Amino acid sequence: MPQLNAIVTALESDDKVKVVVFDSAVEGFFLTHYDFLAKPEDTTNLPPGPTGLPMLPDMLVRISRAPVVSIALIRGRATGVGSELALASDMRFANREKAILSQWEVGAGIVPGGGPMARLPRLMGRGRALEVLMGADDMGGDLAELYGYVNRALPDSELDEFVDALAVRIASFDKQAIAETKRLVDIASLPPDAEICPEWQACMASIARPAAQARLKVLMERGFHKPGDVENRLGYHVGQLAI
Amino acid sequence: MPQLNAIVTALESDDKVKVVVFDSAVEGFFLTHYDFLAKPEDTTNLPPGPTGLPMLPDMLVRISRAPVVSIALIRGRATGVGSELALASDMRFANREKAILSQWEVGAGIVPGGGPMARLPRLMGRGRALEVLMGADDMGGDLAELYGYVNRALPDSELDEFVDALAVRIASFDKQAIAETKRLVDIASLPPDAEICPEWQACMASIARPAAQARLKVLMERGFHKPGDVENRLGYHVGQLAI
Amino acid sequence: MPQLNAIVTALESDDKVKVVVFDSAVEGFFLTHYDFLAKPEDTTNLPPGPTGLPMLPDMLVRISRAPVVSIALIRGRATGVGSELALASDMRFANREKAILSQWEVGAGIVPGGGPMARLPRLMGRGRALEVLMGADDMGGDLAELYGYVNRALPDSELDEFVDALAVRIASFDKQAIAETKRLVDIASLPPDAEICPEWQACMASIARPAAQARLKVLMERGFHKPGDVENRLGYHVGQLAI
Fold first, then answer.
1. Strands of A84-230, DSSP E
2. What is the ipTM of this complex?
3. Average pLDDT, stretch A25-48?
4. What is the mean pLDDT of residues B99-110?
């Protein structure tokens, strides 16, 4: 988190950068989920950020407000906090064949904590947002495009080139026009921070409850946090807990 | 309405139930419209509900807020109050071949009264919501899916199995995680009750006006409230009144 | 602008008209952009309208609120203020083969001024709205339909007949039911005027800045404001400025 925080701070203050693309170097994954093997205190002891929010939601909120266009390039699994980073970005483009998005947390007894309850309904409407959150299942590129979870799903062979061309194009525009236009979109479309904060609190409280601990324990026994089927098909596996 | 009210009350207070599916046992129909043969007083004399709203909008608002996931399984016509019940539910899945959704009321000189002016624009944007409400026409499953009127349209052969699997899946999750996550989505996505109440008042007033009474009279003469073409193609028939 | 203002005033006060269709008699164009050859004072000296907003945003806001259903029939390019007129209208139907929509302004160093930052995110969600505004590129009918930029894209051979049938249908309905229903949709879906006004101010300020003036100068040298490739593919050409 401190590493991402340094990037967000740079994006806020650099007077030249106009576009940032969030991409992954890990085959099959954009970004998946918290490290549930770490101590909760590692997260809860982090100082709040400049917005007054805890560090993770603080960083996500600041990405949305930065005077820079942010693009999530989603080639693999963008689930949990990975979905939340994508949702906090300005745009999302997904690999039609390989991208998977989800908020799997409710399936493990956890309330998501990085903003999806505030952001998903504004993006795709309440009905589809509730399906994503309550169904907690893996969603492929075609359905993510239909629902507006991503801007578009593109064929594997075209995605990188498309995003690169868009980023280079925007980078040729005037930074002040970009920043002022985005700020006006922010007014119309960003959830207030007061909606973001309670998600984090509900998330942290839910992880500590027996319902989540029991489900996380079974998931760990089955291979969570290790390369393999539980990580590759987390949506399926949270549906097999039946606790 | 008292029967539905009892169900809603049970959903609010039961500490085990996690999912409810609204389905229809009547071939070709989910739920269509008010009983215009009944006396208006039968409706207007009903006591307001716990929210302070009149009974029908009260029940719909309470379904949206209940700590239970509600799914509308739409196999036939979900029009008028049937569309409004579907819109108050958390998710909507439609039969691609047979489902018909509409708010046909404006076509009969009536202002819809159960929340669609508040709910449709938040689901599909203002432009498509105005088309649904002002066009007052029958809409099939494919277009309802494109517009986000329903989450998805599924083939007749897959719909029941899909909804059943989703309901069983959600029912295996932790009730507290479901309820808390839904409550946070509610904050981001539910219209305030102050938007719902004026719809009901405008609806009741409109039904009493000559413009609606004249149109309802012609519809009745042509077969409204009886099995047959007017009920089966109400969108077409409200377009043939030309009064 | 005074001509359009006269039309808007007539729509507000006529007690019979129920539907207005905005169409174009110019092959290939719905409406494109401001006249950058005119003096800025020609626009800025116009008196504010009845809403207190400057004349252009005032007229657009009043179209949205008029007790009349407005339909934009988009056969050609609806870009810049043409897109803004379409977005202020209640519904938009586009020619699938020939329609082009865009907010190209950021590509020329200009902040759009007629409401798209307030209206686009409410119609298609923040992510796709930011793509339209920051990408500043031409968008065809298929993608405009997927994004909800238009209600639907229809084949060239069907568009006129479809819009005509819809307009005639709505015109057969009761004006009071239309107006009251629309007013309730307005409450749920229109941006407050306080979001519209700053766009206009930011737009006017941006046009005067060197970043915009330099880009407009190059565009003019390449054929802007004359029939030809720059007007026909403005999205492409703002991507070729690289200033």
1. 91-95, 100-102, 139-140, 152-154
2. 0.97
3. 91
4. 98
Rounded CA gap, B198 and B191, in Å?
12
Residues 6+ apart with CB under 8 A from A233: A138
Which class for C210: exposed (0-12), middle (13-18), buried (19 or more C-beta within 10 A)?
exposed
Q: How many residues does chain C have?
A: 243
For the stretch B17-27, pLDDT in tens is 999 999 999 99
Q: Which residue has the tokens 């239309």?
A: C178
If one counts every other C-beta atom within 10 angstroms of the C-beta of residue C193, the result is 16
Our CA-based measurement puts residue C122 at a distance from the nearest CA of chain A, in whole angstroms, of 7
Q: How far lies B145's CA from each of A132, B91, B114, B130, C146, in Å?
A: 16, 12, 21, 16, 11
| Rounded-to-integer distance, Cα A129 and Cα A220, Å | 27
Which residue has better confidence, C116 or B40?
C116
Is the CB of B118 less than 8 angstroms away from the CB of C188?
yes
Smallest Cβ distance to A178: which of C121, C129, C134?
C134
What residue type is C150 in one-letter code? V
Q: What chains are in contact with B, requiring at least 3 Cβ pairs below 8 Å? A: A, C
Is A187 in Cβ contact with C112 (below 8 Å)? no
Mean pLDDT of A110-137: 98
What is the token pair recorded at B171?
Answer: 């029912």
Contact at CB, B150 and A127, closer than 8 angstroms = yes
pLDDT, one tens digit per residue, over C48-82 is: 999 999 999 999 999 999 999 999 999 999 999 99
Cα(C100)–Cα(C106) distance, integer angstroms: 17
Neighbours of C17 (CB within 10 A): 16
List the beta strands (DSSP E) in C96-210. Answer: 100-102, 139-140, 152-154
